[in-house]
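Bench notes, afternoon.
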Amino acid sequence: MLIKKGVERIWPCTKLWKLSAMVAEGRAVVCKAENCKTSMDLEEVCGNFKADAVVLPTCSNPILTKNELLKEAKKLNYPYVLVDCRYANIHSEKELRRLKLQLKCTVGVIRKFMWRDKLIVSGKKFPEVEAPFYPEAKEFFYEKEIDRVILLDPNAEEVFSSEKESCYVVGGIVDLAGNKRGLTSKLGKELESEGIDVISRKFVLRGDVVGVPDRINHIVKILLMCVVDGIELEKAILSVQTPLVARWRLRKELAKLSFRLDRIIGLNFPVRALWKKDLEKVRWLKVSEEDIYKECSKLGFYVVDNLEAIK
């Protein structure tokens, strides 16, 4: 849209998605520049060059406003993401604090791909979270005439394959106590009882949910990387995966590669080991060589180069 309006350089020098979100949310407009001598090009390279346009809270004759931007964005069919927090009452205070933090981070994620109004929070209001709130999810679905959603559920039978839908639902659940397993599936059944056609899907990493980030903001980022940017699921998961989550999956992969060394060298007590050459098979995870050896040590696994050295 800037190019169509003859804008090649703009101020301030920041990420274009930040400027886009500001305009889309009505917090700013794009105005014709007058004496601005610092700017960035549309590849976000900043320099001491005269700006064609500036982004300001307001101006008398804007060249791009919220309504104009959203009218164009509507053609791209950006989805809604609804975080249903109907089970907030069974969370501990610590879990609620984590939930609030994850929701605040999710607002930031949404702004990188779309704008704030595309994130909906229902069931529990958090004043610090800058997103539209509905006491019940069904109120939002009725208002927007949404009758089918994709629910992201780690216990779903089918794997997410970047299916496009007008709304995706994520459970507003933080489980530090380990007593909330299956709540997302229960959420899906309750949505169905409210007249919504629910399609349940799960994220998997090479056939397993272990190693898939479980924070709400991470789930939403993976989702939008797939459905907005067209990135394949595994690549999206690995780009978002934290070192801690990567190590969870690493332990499982190392266990699968291990073997009973005691049976080979004739020991009378169990000893497990891995062939050193097999360690390359786990390097697809975002882990370093140091991480691999540390996890082997924690698991009590020996790393064996050849049997002759042991004997």
